[in-house]
Design goal:
The complex is a heterodimer. By secondary structure, chain A is of the alpha/beta class. Chain A contains ten helices and ten strands. In chain A, the strands form two sheets. In chain A, strands 6-7-8-3-9-10 form a six-stranded mixed beta sheet, sandwiched between helices. The chains are: A alpha/beta, B mainly alpha. At the A-B interface, strand 6 and helix 4 of A face helix 3 and helix 4 of B.
Chain lengths: ~250, ~240
């Protein structure tokens, strides 16, 4: 997350044999996958399968018991590597700071690191909020925003970092279908415009098959398949099939 | 509480190491300082006036009865400056400000706002703990100085108006001046500075280690206040022993 690094193209990500236990319970059981630079990679799986824990490892909020994470071939963990590559995480809840306005939230990274003058920060904040259709909400408090608006504000906050790798944690959870489509479009548009590598963790099948270049399905801390959306749809595994085709069965 | 002492010492040490960033966080320090002062000054004054008044009321008639009326000002002055103002104000601030610190940081922790800061490479100690600790370390001693002055005034008013004492205002202050020295006030203010650090560290630590939802925040707030008060009382004894030498 080096502010001086102006390289905006996406980075490659390799995860090898990642294991994590919480209180004796295996949450990640040797997760391995690779994300190519500029790719939109979606990790799908049922609730409690370890998706969010995996994301926390990628952004450095958790330390793995075993395994390694490489960005552009360099092992993350050291401050030098963390400073070399810019990464951003869009939290499931948005995680906007409730005591700050939307504008202050979006500009927080630049303000705290004193990267620009206040006038420049204001201009960038408005620009990023306009990108996600929230220009009018700049002076609003997070509590005044809807769930979808909070997530879009969180995306704007991530964009300010000019990330090379952007991680989305359940970006469409708790959203109505229209808002979910807006968020999906934002992910696609951002990827097209900046070629940022995007890793989306979601159990939303529509989002996953709508935006993904490739999809990995994780069940009980293990990746059971990786492939293009078509390949995953055709994958012949009862657990994956059940997850992908789960539906109500109401008697007529 | 005692199992977390190591973590609290570490948090305090990390906050000390963050001191070079204090100027950068000055805006937040001023905000916190205003918050602490604004929220507590009136309460401190009311409380201190009546503490001074009640000490004079409790000790004055007994001393006057034994022809020691010249000691009333000194007793009230010493009791307030060295003990009552620093300890009671610290307990008041632990309840009002320590609880608010633990609740605010705790809810930020529960709702992933602190994780969000870390993903932006913003150190939560620089952003959250340092401004609060600096603000309380300055504000509490200042509140204690106010408390001492108002407490003396409360004692003087009661000594002057109570028919069992009938010590004139001027005589009360003159007696007080004869017994209380600047070092007594200094000791009280120094104690309050130490108590401020205790409240700040204990409350911020509770906030940062909050787990669970709203119930977890409530638990942290209670622990922050209770642990702060326990630490204040223990350190009060230790500091008094040290300062008596």
């Amino acid at each position: 997350m080096n502010p001086a690094n102006s390289n905006q193209s996406g980075v490659g990500l390799v995860v090898r044999g990642l294991r994590k236990k919480f209180g004796g319970q295996d949450v990640l059981k040797g997760v391995s996958f690779e994300v190519k630079p500029g790719e939109i990679f979606v990790i799908m799986g049922p609730s409690g399968s370890g998706k969010s824990v995996l994301l926390k490892h990628l952004i450095g909020l958790e330390d793995a018991d075993e395994g390694e994470i490489l960005i552009n071939g360099e092992k993350i963990g050291s401050p030098e590597i963390a400073a070399k590559y810019r990464m951003a995480l869009v939290f499931q809840s948005g995680a906007l700071l409730n005591s700050l306005t939307v504008g202050e939230n979006v500009g927080l990274y630049l303000t705290e690191h004193k990267l620009k003058s206040p006038e420049e920060i204001e201009k960038i904040v408005l620009e990023k909020l306009e990108d996600v259709g929230l220009k009018d909400a700049v002076n609003k408090m997070p509590s005044e925003l809807s769930g979808g608006m909070k997530k879009r504000a969180a995306i704007a906050r991530a964009l300010v970092i000019e990330p090379q790798l952007i991680l989305y944690d359940e970006p469409t959870s708790e959203l109505d279908p229209l808002s979910a489509v807006v968020i999906g479009d934002e992910i696609l548009e951002l990827n097209r415009r900046t070629h940022v590598t995007s890793l989306v963790v979601s159990h939303d099948r529509d989002l996953a098959f709508g935006v993904a270049d490739r999809i990995a399905v994780i069940v009980d801390g293990v990746i059971v398949t990786i492939g293009t959306p078509d390949e995953v749809k055709k994958f012949n595994d009862p657990v994956v099939k059940k997850f992908l085709h789960a539906d109500f069965k109401r008697e007529k | 509480m005692f199992e977390n002492i190591g973590e609290m010492v570490l948090l305090f040490w990390r906050t000390l190491l963050a001191l070079p960033h204090a100027w950068r966080q000055r805006q937040k320090v001023f905000e916190q300082f205003f918050e602490i002062g604004n929220a507590s000054l009136l309460m401190v004054c009311v409380l201190s006036f009546f503490i001074g008044a009640v000490i004079a009321l409790q000790t004055g008639p007994v001393l006057v009865e034994r022809s020691l009326s010249s000691a009333v000002g000194g007793v009230v002055g010493i009791a307030i400056a060295k003990e009552l103002a620093p300890v009671l104000m610290a307990i008041l601030i632990a309840g009002r400000i320590g609880s608010a610190m633990a609740a605010e940081i705790g809810s930020m922790r529960v709702y992933q706002e602190i994780d969000a800061l870390r993903t932006m490479n913003i150190n939560p100690i620089h952003y959250l703990v340092l401004p609060r600790l600096l603000a309380i370390a300055v504000a509490l001693p200042m509140l204690v100085i106010s408390s001492i002055l108002v407490g003396w005034f409360g004692g003087a008013v009661v000594a002057d108006t109570n028919s069992h004492m009938d010590i004139p205002f001027r005589a009360f202050y003159s007696d007080l001046q004869n017994i209380v020295v600047l070092q007594d006030v200094g000791n009280g203010v120094f104690k309050s500075f130490c108590f401020a650090l205790i409240i700040g560290v204990v409350s911020c630590h509770q906030g940062l280690t909050t787990i669970g939802g709203p119930r977890g925040i409530g638990r942290s707030v209670t622990k922050a206040v209770v642990n702060s008060i326990v630490c204040i009382v223990i350190f009060d004894y230790v500091l008094t022993r040290f300062l008596l030498k």
